[in-house]
Amino acid sequence: MTTPPSGRISRRIASITPSATLAVDAKAKALRASGAPVIGFGAGEPDFATPDYIVAAAEEACRDPRNHKYSPAAGLPELREAIARKTLRDSGVRVEPTQVVVTNGGKHAVYSSVLTVIDEGDELLLPAPYWTTYPEPVALAGGTTVPVVAGADQGFRVTVEQLEAARTDRTKALMFVSPSNPTGAVYPRAEIEAIGRWALEHGIIVITDEIYEHLTYGDVEHHSILEVVPGLADQCIILNGVAKTYAMTGWRVGWMIAPADIAKAATSLQSHMTSNVNNVAQMAALAAVSGDLSAVEAMRATFDQRRRIIHEALNGIDGVVCLEPEGAFYAYPDLTGLLGRPLAGRTASDTIELADIVLEEANVAFVPGEAFGTPGYGRFSFAMDTDDMAEGIGRIADLVDAG
User: Fold this and answer.
1) Among positive and negative, which fits the CA dihedral 314, 315, 316, 320?
2) Res. 363: pLDDT tops 80
3) Who has the most CB within 10 Å: 29, 96, 138, 352?
4) How far is Cα 71 from Cα 66, in angstroms, rounded to an integer?
């Protein structure tokens, strides 16, 4: 029998951390399937069905033989044109269809963008708390992620001063996200302008993830950094997709919008990695971005109601402090007041242990802050039924009160 070679998994692939958000969701679903009454706050997807007109477009596309064949790696021309129109309509940013690269979901857009611009030894500044996926393609490219932490005391928004303090001669890019996953924070226009002008001054590429652009609440507004600072046009990559706005997470259609040379290079990468995105899903996305925003307006009204409920409920737990979310569909409470306290005869020294205790003792799943670069916090999605939300938070409160 031949002995397998040592190190058969490459170092870079072996170093990739599995998605914590998907892992928590999978664990909750597995426990639920075994009969446990688990309530999961881990899922990062709308709990609504894709609008009927989008599904109808996909059904029609299935019957069109043109969609049974390969199509251009960068995306269907009509979809790229529609995305360019949608970007002008929603973000006030004028782009050419040739700058659009349609990807297999938002994660693919993140990977393609990072792998296209980051070289060995390059640094990417990453405001924390951050979505769990962002550091992984940087490491895969041989670059270094430099977290820049902004706590609840500053609304989870980094400042220019913090970014400047983290900048070195190896800094090549900044990942900028507003509205934020996991915190729900939204940067005001003035702060976006300051960050954009700083990046422009230092020649730093800005990769801006705008996937939650339509999910803001109250008087809070989303502003695209490229609309606020148009001078960034030659050093800005916009990431977006249909997943959150149109409840289409499973359809796997995202996109990146980049300067011509970056878009061309990313298309070359995609031509070897995946070829075209599923044509039927692309036609569904075409219907989505070409239609009005009435479906997302209805979702947003529901999310707005839920965010208020979860914000109040979390702050009602002894030892928990939570800022009111301004965007996306996540609350990100400070849970340090629960650490070191007895909970069902157990104590947690960090939020990873706390999440395990809460899941095992209260049948409630949430994602610990370690996954987002900020231990001591937890992410709670409110993309869920209101009754389940109240029951889940109530179970945690009961666990804490019982000591």
Assistant:
1) positive
2) yes
3) 138
4) 9
Q: Is pLDDT above 90 for 3?
A: no
Residue spans per domain, the chain? 11-49+295-402, 69-290
Q: What is the pLDDT of residues 145-191, one digit of tens each?
A: 999 999 999 999 999 999 999 999 999 999 999 999 999 999 999 99
Q: Are 329 and 307 in contact (CB under 8 A)?
A: yes
pLDDT of residue 4: 56
Q: Do domains 11-49+295-402 and 69-290 have the same CATH topology?
A: no
pLDDT-derived band at 6, boundaries 50, 70, 90: low
Question: How many Cβ atoms from other residues are within 10 Å of residue 7's Cβ?
Answer: 8
Q: Read out DSSP for 231-256?
A: GGGGGEEEEEESTTTTT-GGG--EEE
Burial of 169 (0-12, 13-18, 19+ CB in 10 A): exposed
Give the closest residue to 95 by CA, choosing from 2, 190, 234. Answer: 234
Question: Token match 């996937």: residue?
Answer: 211
For the CA atoms of the chain, what is the radius of gyration? 21
Is 11-49+295-402 assigned to CATH 3.90.1150.10?
Answer: yes
Q: What CATH fold (topology level) applies to the domain 69-290?
A: Aspartate Aminotransferase; domain 2 (3.40.640)
% of the chain beyond a pLDDT of 70: 99
Between the alpha carbon of residue 255 and those of residues 110, 210, 238, 356, 367, the distances in Å are 9, 11, 8, 36, 27
Nearest-angstrom CA–CA distance, 87 and 238: 10
Closest of 208, 196, 203, 197 to residue 169, by C-alpha: 203
